[in-house]
Amino acid sequence: MAISVFIYEDNDNLRESLCSLFSLTEQYEVQGAFANCSQVEEQVKTYLPDVILMDIDMPVISGIEAVKKIRCFNKQVQIIMLTVFDDHMHVFDALGAGANGYLLKKNLSDKLFNSIQEVLNGGAPMSPAIAKMILIQMQQAATLPQNDYQLTNREKEILSLLSEGNSHKMIAASLTISIETVRSHLKNIYDKLHVHSQTEALSKAFKEKLV
To answer: Are residues 83 and 104 in the same domain?
Structure first.
């Protein structure tokens, strides 16, 4: 069965180009492509897409607000933000709202499908610059008491490597373990931290000084 995709992008040419790009593959199916998010709740609830590509700067309702709305009723759908600049503060806000990662629009033709596969495999497409931004923001937040989540040394090690912007492949190579083992540890980390994504795990780790 094809992976269902929603596209929210107000630039008509870019939206049509994305649809054309997906039409070249049998692995993905664009269920909907929209110029704004005015009906995002109804659309996502009705069609239950696997992946959403969400422009950050949208008319009527911003991509960030749309993510917040979606996360109120759907924690499973993978959301990738589309943005022009990787140092945009809005990227951080979108990740904090529940997005799973982001993709620069200039890299869409080269990295789109890899980024989708990454989020579907539990990863989070994100540059080291954004990972660092998350770290700085969380360090500036009010200090909260640290909880004992009973993370193992290896889980803490993987969480620390993630916080530095390393991919699953890089972590596996660094620790001399398989990517599947990394994913298994990540699942345990998510369960212990009571989160559903890598972004949420990093946010909680920074906020509560777990790394």
So the answer is: yes
